[in-house]
C-alpha cells in the first residue's frame, strides 16, 4: 500500500504573501511592499475587509453578518492580543488581509510597563478557516485607529451564532491570565477624548507606614473581608459583596496613602485602575466600561470632591449624573470595587453618598496626641533615639500626618542629623509647618 506524503496546506500565493508581511518587521514589510510595486504587482492591500470576507467565506457581501465588540479602547487592544495568540496557534491555516486603503496589515505594540511590550495585530482582517476558532470559517477585523476603532467578526448570516460564541469566549478569556494587563496597576488618563489605560509601577505602600486609629483599620478590614476571604460566604448568603469605600477627612491625614495601601493589598487578585481627574470628569462611563475587560477590578477615584460637587441651582450636573449612572451600572457586577477619597463628604451630592453606592464611609480624623507621637516616631526613624515623641506631640495640636512629616523635614533641613528634642519642640511650636500660617492682610 502506498502512502502519499503529507500535503502542505492549500494557500493562495497572495494569501501567503500577506501572511509573510503580517509576521515581518515594519522595515521588512515596507521593503517588500515597495519591491512588489516596483516589479509591477498590484498593491497588496486593495480589498476591503468585507470583500476579503466575502471572497473567503464564499458569500456575497450582502450575505455577510458582522458581530461587533462595542467596548472601549483598551479592551479592544486586549482582544487584539488574543487575536494575535490565535493567529500564532493556527499560523499554518490563517489567511491575513489588509483593511484596504492601500495599507498593509499592521501590528502595533501593547505597552505592559517599562521595557515590556507585546506585538498585537492592530489593523488587519484574518480568516480563521473552519476547524480553527470554530466549526465554521470566520473573519476577524481589528482596527485600532481611534476614529474607526473596531473589533468585529464577519461570518455568513447563518453562522452569526458561532461568531457570537467566539466573541463571548474572547471576552471571557480577558478575565483570565491570558489578559496581560490583568492584576496590574493601571493609570487612566484622557487621550484624544477617550480613556487611555497605561501601566503604572506596582504600589508598594504597606500598612506599617500608615499610622491610623484602630477603629479605622477595623472598618478597612471589614471592607476588605467582603472583597476577600468572606466573599464567597456573603455571595452564598445573598448579603452582597463590597461595592464602594469612601474615605473622608481633611487634607494631609493620609487618605491617598490609605487607598494605595488598599490597592496594594488587593493587588494580583484585583486589577487596579487609578483614575485621574480628567478621566473622572469627562469619561467616567468609559472608565467603568474598561473594567469589563479585567475581571475583579478596584477603581480608585482620588479626590472625587473635585469632580462631584452638588448639582447647580437648576439641579443639573452632567458629570454627577454620569458618575451615578456608571456606579449603579457597575455595582450590578460583584467584581468591581470603587475606592474614593474626599476632603469634604458634605460637598458631595447626597445622591453620590447613598449607601448602595459607597457601603463603607470611613472618616480619618486629624490624629490625637498619642497618634501624633507615633507619627513623629515613624518619621524620625533612628534619629528619634533619646527624643520623647509625646512631649513634642503635645505642641502639635491640630497637626496631620503630612504636617508632622513637614516638621521633621524642617528640623533636619535646619540642623542636619544632630538635633535635640528642644529643637523639635521649637519648630513644632513655631507653627511654620502649617500650610496656611502666613496670612497677610492688605489694607
Ligand atoms: N496617618 C498617617 N500616617 C503616616 N503618614 C501619613 C499619615 N497621614 C499623612 N501622612 C503622610 O503625609 C503625606 C500626605 O498624605 P496623603 O497624601 O495621604 O494625604 P491626603 O489625606 O490624601 O491629603 P489631601 O486631602 O491633600 O489629598 C504622605 O506622605 C503621607 O504618607
Ligand atoms: Mg490625597
What is the rounded distance between the termini?
111 Å
Average predicted local confidence, pLDDT: 84
Bin the helical content: 25-40%
The strands making up the biggest β-sheet line up spatially as 8-7-10-11-12-9-13
CATH topology group of the largest domain: Rossmann fold
Following the backbone from N to C, one meets helices and strands in this order, namely HHHEHEEEEEHEEHHEHEHHEHEHEHHHH
Strand composition percent: 15-25%
CATH class call of the largest domain: Alpha Beta
Number of strand elements: 13
**How many structural domains does the protein architecture include?**
3
CATH A-level architecture of the largest domain: 3-Layer(aba) Sandwich
- What structural class results from the helix and strand content? alpha/beta
What small molecules does the structure contain? adenosine-5'-triphosphate, magnesium ion
> Helical segment tally?
16
Per CATH, the superfamily of the largest domain is P-loop containing nucleotide triphosphate hydrolases
Radius of gyration over C-alpha positions, nearest whole angstrom: 29 Å
Main pleated sheet:
7 strands, mixed
* Bulk shape: elongated
Low-confidence stretches: 1-14, 40-44, 437-443
Amino acid at each position: 500500500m502506498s502512502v502519499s506524503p503529507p500535503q502542505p496546506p492549500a494557500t493562495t500565493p497572495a494569501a501567503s504573501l500577506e501572511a509573510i508581511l503580517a509576521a515581518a518587521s515594519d522595515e521588512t514589510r515596507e521593503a517588500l511592499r515597495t519591491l512588489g510595486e516596483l516589479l509591477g504587482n498590484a498593491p497588496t492591500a486593495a480589498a476591503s475587509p468585507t470583500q476579503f470576507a466575502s471572497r473567503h467565506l464564499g458569500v456575497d457581501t450582502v450575505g455577510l453578518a458582522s458581530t461587533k465588540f462595542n467596548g472601549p479602547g483598551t479592551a479592544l487592544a486586549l482582544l487584539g492580543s488574543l487575536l494575535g495568540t490565535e493567529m500564532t496557534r493556527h499560523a499554518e491555516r490563517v489567511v491575513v488581509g489588509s483593511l484596504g486603503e492601500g495599507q498593509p496589515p499592521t501590528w502595533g505594540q501593547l505597552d505592559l510597563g517599562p521595557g515590556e511590550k507585546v506585538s498585537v495585530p492592530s489593523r488587519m482582517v484574518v480568516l480563521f478557516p473552519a476547524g480553527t476558532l470554530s466549526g465554521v470559517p470566520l473573519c476577524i477585523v481589528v482596527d485600532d485607529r481611534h476614529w474607526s476603532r473596531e473589533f468585529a467578526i464577519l461570518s455568513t448570516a447563518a453562522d452569526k451564532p458561532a461568531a457570537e460564541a467566539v466573541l463571548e469566549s474572547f471576552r471571557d478569556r480577558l478575565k483570565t491570565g491570558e489578559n496581560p494587563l490583568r492584576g496590574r496597576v493601571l493609570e487612566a488618563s484622557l487621550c484624544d477624548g477617550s480613556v487611555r489605560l497605561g501601566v503604572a509601577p506596582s504600589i508598594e505602600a504597606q500598612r506599617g507606614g500608615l499610622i491610623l486609629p484602630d477603629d479605622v483599620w477595623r472598618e478597612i478590614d471589614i471592607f476588605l473581608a467582603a472583597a476577600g476571604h468572606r466573599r464567597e460566604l456573603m455571595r452564598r448568603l445573598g448579603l452582597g459583596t463590597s461595592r464602594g469605600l469612601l474615605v473622608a477627612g481633611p487634607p494631609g491625614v493620609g487618605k491617598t496613602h490609605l487607598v494605595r495601601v488598599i490597592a496594594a493589598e488587593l493587588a494580583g487578585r484585583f486589577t487596579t485602575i487609578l483614575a485621574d481627574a480628567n478621566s473622572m470628569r469627562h469619561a467616567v462611563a468609559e472608565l467603568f466600561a474598561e473594567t469589563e475587560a479585567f475581571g475583579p477590578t478596584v477603581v480608585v477615584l482620588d479626590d472625587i470632591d473635585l469632580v462631584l460637587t452638588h448639582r447647580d441651582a437648576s439641579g443639573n450636573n452632567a458629570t454627577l449624573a454620569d458618575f451615578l449612572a456608571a456606579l449603579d451600572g457597575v455595582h450590578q457586577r460583584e467584581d468591581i470595587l470603587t475606592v474614593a477619597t474626599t476632603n469634604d463628604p458634605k460637598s458631595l451630592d447626597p445622591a453620590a453618598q447613598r449607601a448602595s453606592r459607597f457601603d463603607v464611609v470611613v472618616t480619618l480624623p486629624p490624629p490625637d496626641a498619642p497618634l501624633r507621637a507615633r507619627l513623629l516616631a515613624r518619621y524620625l526613624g533612628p534619629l528619634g533615639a533619646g527624643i520623647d515623641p509625646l512631649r513634642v506631640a503635645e505642641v502639635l495640636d491640630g497637626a496631620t500626618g503630612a504636617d508632622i512629616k513637614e516638621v521633621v523635614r524642617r528640623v533636619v533641613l535646619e540642623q542636619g542629623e544632630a538635633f535635640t528634642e528642644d529643637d523639635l519642640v521649637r519648630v513644632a511650636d513655631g507653627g511654620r509647618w502649617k500650610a496656611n500660617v502666613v496670612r497677610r492682610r492688605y489694607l
